[in-house]
Design goal:
This protein is α+β, with helices and mostly antiparallel strands and 616 residues long. It has 12 helices and 25 strands. The strands form 5 sheets. A 10-stranded mixed beta sheet has the order 1-2-4-3-5-6-9-10-13-14, with helices on both faces. Strands 15, 16, 17, 19, 22, 24 and 25 form a 7-stranded antiparallel beta sheet that branches. The protein has a 4-stranded antiparallel beta sheet with strand order 18-23-20-21. β5, α5 and β6 form a beta-alpha-beta unit. The longest helix has 18 residues. The N and C termini lie far apart (62 Å).
């Protein structure tokens, strides 16, 4: 009985975690203000999708429709059972909107077969369907059948619902006027479960949520999370050994686990599940939202905004705050990630003055594009203040190259020579000093990196103490020149803000730390070396041959303040955030054997460089 309850509580926790909903019960009584209706809307191929509609009891005026499509359940089920919070935020809830939730095809109370990141079908014919057609058919039914609607529709979603929000932009229904993809997945080979070809091992437990399919509508969880022998995530995965040993927990009935194993490269299976390549000629207004410390979906929001901006002529804006996954939808007063405090009321102010303003303008107002909102709102995570720009990246930046040099220095010029370190799969570098068995890690994105800097298998390069502020805006590109005694290797680059010794602690500072000399990770990324030239065509390294490995770190907006130092860390393991590379080339790491994992010596040459953009 305990295990059943544990699974249920875990699934409920994950639902709130991934969607960003607060678990706090607001004083506002949804039931007294809204009526609830549950309907099954028939799609063009005859499949019925379960849909929940909350309509204001005040019928003296007409309301727009705000909709979220989700794989995480539109529960609670039953027309007499209400959510404690509906809509994107409390302001849109309290002022009155028709709020709609829908279980996507193949999930929970909806019929059909679920397809994880279902591929888009351009120029659909007859009964062909995808998530775009399901959204279109749903909107068409809603505007024709729901009472007291002004026939204008907005869609929002965080994380996976953010992907469905992006999807709604393709072949959009004429009634769809405003869409806000938030923490939206852009391409499944670069978001969530993969980063540049490396498998995100720390997300392995979540595989149950997406991999177990169902055959009929259900109101209770049909999937089960693996029961593990240890809550020590690092030790559990180290003891488990090769990925193939995890088959003990997920059998062939876990479709997603099978897909991961059978498609280790960026093949057609993954390519067709990407959505950013289809974002052209978009018509609805768009507001992309992301967190600068979002461990799950950082690639997607930036790429979504930039692809729409390049290939469409619609209203398109972007908001990035100092948030981890979904923080902007919560109401916590003090905003912090890991030990770093950024300010008060950042999320509630966004909800009131940005999100509500965006939807109201296009769904209730003039919808002329003159929202009063800037094109780009982004938080400076060093100065801890909001900035606005007319484009992204900002136009007033200049490129600068910093070289990884001898004596652990970042310098302005390239020099000869190299530095070596030993990478041992039996003693991999942890991704945090504070590792717990969680579904998806969060806090490491701004964690203290002193523990890593002091390891012999982590290389450190840093500037002298800065004599003036330096603001980095936009992309960071690491251009490594490396060699290895093996035939495969991962390469991890971290951009770190080294604080002065006199920085004071805050209430967020963990008890075993001090903020003086804190090594704040600002940005980090991994490249699975076999994909250095082509994600579709892996290739081994030639042992001891100098080789180029370029790593695009996601965009930042961070001021390294006077008195701080800019630091770069380079390493080859990042465990168990990513899986272990055998360091001996094998065609499929998911099928590697224990004997394939070997200790190797890696070399980083001093003409390796970091390209940054400095705000003028």
């Amino acid at each position: 009985m305990r295990s059943v309850r544990f699974i249920l509580l875990r699934s409920i926790y994950f639902f709130y975690f991934i969607t960003g909903f607060s678990q706090e019960t607001a004083s506002y009584d949804v039931k007294s203000q809204y009526t609830k209706q549950e309907v099954d809307i028939v799609m063009r191929d005859g499949v019925k999708l379960h849909t929940t509609i909350y309509s204001p009891k005040d019928t003296s005026k007409k309301y727009p429709i705000l909709m979220q499509r989700t794989p995480y359940s539109s529960r609670p089920y039953g027309e007499d059972k209400f959510r404690s919070k509906i809509g994107p935020n409390e302001f849109l809830m309290k002022e009155g909107n028709i709020i709609v939730y829908q279980d996507v095809r193949g999930r929970w109370m909806s019929e059909g077969v679920y397809d994880n990141m279902r591929a888009y079908i351009p120029n659909k014919k007859g009964k062909q369907f995808d998530e775009a057609s399901d959204t279109y058919d749903t909107i068409d039914w809603l505007v024709k059948n729901v009472a007291n609607t002004n026939k204008k529709v907005g869609i929002w979603g965080i994380s996976y619902p953010g992907f469905y929000a992006t999807y709604s932009l393709l072949d959009a229904h004429p009634a769809l006027k405003a869409v806000s993809p938030q923490a939206c997945i852009g391409d499944f080979f670069f978001d969530d479960f993969h980063h540049n070809g490396a498998y995100l091992l720390s997300y392995w437990r979540v595989t149950a949520l997406f991999g177990h399919e169902k055959t009929q509508p259900v109101s209770e969880a049909w999937y089960k999370f693996a029961k593990l022998p240890s809550e020590d995530q690092y030790q559990f995965f180290l003891d488990a050994g090769p990925l193939s040993n995890l088959d003990t927990y997920y059998k062939e009935d876990n479709v997603f686990w099978t897909q991961l194993k059978e498609h280790p490269n960026y093949d057609e299976f993954w390519k067709k599940r990407g959505i950013i390549q289809h974002l052209e000629k978009i018509k609805p207004a768009v507001m992309v939202v992301g967190g600068l410390f979002d461990a799950e979906d950082l690639y997607g929001p930036f790429e979504t905004y930039e692809n729409i901006e390049k290939r469409s002529d619609n209203y398109n804006i972007m908001v990035f705050g100092p948030w981890s996954h979904g923080d902007w939808s919560r109401t916590k007063k003090r905003q912090a990630v890991s030990n770093v405090y950024f300010g008060d009321d950042l999320s509630i102010n966004y909800q009131k003055n940005v999100e509500t303003k965006f939807f109201n303008h296009f769904l209730k107002g003039a919808a002329d594009g003159k929202t009063g909102l800037p094109e780009i709102q982004i938080f400076d995570t060093g100065k801890k203040e909001w900035n606005s720009f007319e484009k992204w990246p900002p136009s007033n930046t200049e490129k600068k190259t910093l070289y990884l040099s001898e004596n652990e220095k970042l310098s302005n010029s390239s020099r000869g020579g190299a530095i070596e370190f030993v990478s041992d799969p039996k003693k991999p570098v942890p991704y945090s000093e504070d590792i717990k068995m969680v579904f998806t890690p969060r806090k490491y994105m701004a964690d203290d990196q002193r523990f890593a800097a002091r390891r012999p298998d982590v290389l450190v390069f840093e500037t002298p103490v800065l004599t003036e502020d330096m603001t980095l805006s936009g992309e960071i590109l690491a251009k490594l020149k490396v060699a290895t005694t093996g035939t495969d290797a991962d390469w991890v680059v971290k951009l770190v803000d080294v604080y002065p010794n006199d920085v004071k602690d805050t209430e967020e500072t963990q008890k075993y730390l001090k903020m003086g000399n804190y090594h704040m990770m600002v940005r980090s990324e991994v490249m699975r070396g076999r994909f250095r030239n082509d994600f579709s065509k892996p290739e081994p390294f030639i042992a001891n041959k100098k080789t180029d490995v370029n790593i695009k770190l996601q965009d930042i907006h961070h001021t390294f303040k006077k008195g701080h130092k800019i630091q770069i860390q380079v390493q080859s393991t990042w465990f168990p955030l990513i899986d272990l590379n055998p360091q001996k080339y094998v065609p499929n790491i998911f099928k590697a054997e224990a004997s394939d994992f070997t200790k190797q010596t890696h070399k980083v040459y001093y003409d390796s460089a970091i390209e940054i953009s400095i705000l003028k």
